């Protein structure tokens, strides 16, 4: 592993046709880069004394475990374990506990992807901690891994293969054993042995339903699926499964996605730190959620024409319960935050009932369209028009100086209802006040 010097600072599908394979010209090497225990690794970048110590990160409202260090896994701490049930066990074992710090994790993810982009323009970000690359000739996976570590402090595992499906299998081997964090699949009989060791449920794209079907047909591993006749695979698994079989044979059939499929909705929902009964606090909450959902729209240059608002009490246990939602058709498709807030407040007033201890609320925007293709209404009220310059300025300030630098007063100031984050780390890379000082 390279030394611990890290440079840090502020800023920072399948084709639905009958054609199974496509020509890629020269031989392509696909790499799957996966950040190891990503949320934990982000916390350790700024707290090196946590290296070698068991660490867990909790979900929203400090609910359950969503990320574990290798040391925590060795203690038998299960993914998804409720914190209140294992709190004493964690304290006894000296486990460091953190609340989710998504601003930090999102920024660190962007830094990792930026380093990867320096090696190839063909990068497909698969999730916050995973990306597929098309490695050019001469690029070495170990070199890429070392560069990510040097520039971000995040350890990654890299699996390399002639297809994305095989790169997934290689990545699993890179995570353990003597591979040193990077592994390129061999060819011939050695590859056959690896595929024979890969259970069918471990093949990318094979879900539970197909796993049950294949095991019923005594197809228990990747090698057996690879060697099935095309006609049989297509009959039982459709053209999607046939592409997976071809990928296992080393024929690229899943394109690097130049543009991810457009999502059908944008949602922001959150449980409260404590029960909320007053409509004023609920108005602050739905205003904040509407603002967050609008930010997501603008990042992808989308606009929404409909909005759903919902509120709910706790779902289990004694006491009064109440859940309701309402859907609003907006005057025109928009990405303008004040419009969403105004409409959310009106919707909340229709479903709110006093006297109930509300524990959760949410906003969902749907009816999404491309923001650049909107038909504007000359006679629409001022509040329904998009003030693009104002939203761009707001987003730019929040991106540069940290989320919450500029916000609507309707979102509230103190937010006593906001979610529980008793173990939240500083926003080291996105907030000036939290920037580490070197003495």
Give a topology summary.
Elements: E1 29-35, H1 38-46, E2 55-58, E3 65-68, H2 70-74, H3 83-93, E4 96-98, H4 102-117, E5 123-127, E6 130-135, H5 141-152, E7 156-161, H6 164-175, E8 182-184, H7 189-197, H8 208-216, H9 222-226, H10 230-248, E9 265-276, H11 279-299, E10 302-313, E11 323-334, H12 337-351, E12 358-370, H13 388-401
Parallel strand pairs: 2-4, 7-8
Antiparallel strand pairs: 1-6, 1-7, 2-3, 5-6, 9-12, 10-11, 10-12
Helix pairs in contact: 4-5, 11-12
Write a brief structural summary.
With 439 residues, the chain is α+β, with helices and mostly antiparallel strands. 36% of the residues lie in helices and 20% in strands.
Write a structural description:
The protein has helices spanning 38-46, 70-74, 83-93, 102-117, 141-152, 164-175, 189-197, 208-216, 222-226, 230-248, 279-299, 337-351, 388-401; strands at residues 29-35, 55-58, 65-68, 96-98, 123-127, 130-135, 156-161, 182-184, 265-276, 302-313, 323-334, 358-370. With 439 residues, the chain is an alpha+beta fold. The protein has a five-stranded mixed sheet with strand order 5-6-1-7-8. Strand 7, helix 6 and strand 8 (182-184) form a beta-alpha-beta unit. The protein is globular, with a radius of gyration of 24 Å.
The rounded Rg comes to 24 Å
Give the N-terminus to C-terminus distance in angstroms.
26 Å
Helix content: 25-40%
The largest sheet, given as strand count, sense and whether it forms a barrel, is: 5 strands, mixed
Number of helices: 13
Instruction: Tell me the number of strands.
Output: 12
Class computed from helices, strands and strand pairing: alpha+beta
Shape: globular
Instruction: Give the helices and strands as they follow along the chain.
Output: EHEEHHEHEEHEHEHHHHEHEEHEH
Please state roughly what percent of the residues sit in beta strands, choosing from under 5%, 5-15%, 15-25%, 25-35%, 35-45% or over 45%: 15-25%
Low-confidence stretches: 1-25, 257-261
Give the strand order of the largest sheet, numbering strands 1, 2, ... along the chain.
5-6-1-7-8
Mean pLDDT, to the nearest integer, reads: 84
Looking at the chains present, what oligomeric state does this protein adopt? Answer: single chain
């Amino acid at each position: 592993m390279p030394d611990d010097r890290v440079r840090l600072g502020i800023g920072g599908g399948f084709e639905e046709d009958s054609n199974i394979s496509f020509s890629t010209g020269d031989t392509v090497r696909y790499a799957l880069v996966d950040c190891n225990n990503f949320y934990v690794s982000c916390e350790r970048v700024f707290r090196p004394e946590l290296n070698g110590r068991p660490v867990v990160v909790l979900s929203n409202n400090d609910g359950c475990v969503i990320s574990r260090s290798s040391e925590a896994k060795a203690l038998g701490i299960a993914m998804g374990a409720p914190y209140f049930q294992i709190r004493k066990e964690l304290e006894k074992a000296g486990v460091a506990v953190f609340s989710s710090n998504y601003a930090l994790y999102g920024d660190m993810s962007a830094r990792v992807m930026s380093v990867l982009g320096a090696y190839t323009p063909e990068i497909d970000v698969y999730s916050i901690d995973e990306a597929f690359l098309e490695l050019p000739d001469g690029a070495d996976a170990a070199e890429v891994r070392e560069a990510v570590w040097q520039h971000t402090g995040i350890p990654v595992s890299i699996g390399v293969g002639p297809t994305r499906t095989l790169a997934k299998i290689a990545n699993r081997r890179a995570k353990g054993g003597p591979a040193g964090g990077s592994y390129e699949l061999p060819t011939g009989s050695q590859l056959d042995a690896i595929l024979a060791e890969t259970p069918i449920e471990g093949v990318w794209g094979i879900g539970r339903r197909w796993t049950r079907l294949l095991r019923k047909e005594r197809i228990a591993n990747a090698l057996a699926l690879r060697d099935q006749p095309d006609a049989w695979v297509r009959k039982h698994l459709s053209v999607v499964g046939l592409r997976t079989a071809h990928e296992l044979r080393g024929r690229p059939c899943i394109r690097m996605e130049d543009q991810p499929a457009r999502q059908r909705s944008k949602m922001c929902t959150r449980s409260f730190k404590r029960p909320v009964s007053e409509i004023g606090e609920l108005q602050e909450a739905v205003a904040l959620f509407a603002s967050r959902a609008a930010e997501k729209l603008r990042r992808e240059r989308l606009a929404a024409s409909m909005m759903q608002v919902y509120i709910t009490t706790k779902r289990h246990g004694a006491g009064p319960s109440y859940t309701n939602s309402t859907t609003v058709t907006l005057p025109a498709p928009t990405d303008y935050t004040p419009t969403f807030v105004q409409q959310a407040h009106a919707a909340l007033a229709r479903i709110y009932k006093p006297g109930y201890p509300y524990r959760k609320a949410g906003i969902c925007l749907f009816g999404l369209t491309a923001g650049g293709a909107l038909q504007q209404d000359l006679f629409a009220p001022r509040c329904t028009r998009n003030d693009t310059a104002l939203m761009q300025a707001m987003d730019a300030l929040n991106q540069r100086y940290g989320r919450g630098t500029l916000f609507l007063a309707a979102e509230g100031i103190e937010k006593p209802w906001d979610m529980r984050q008793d173990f939240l780390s500083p926003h080291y890379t996105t907030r000036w006040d939290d920037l580490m000082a070197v003495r």
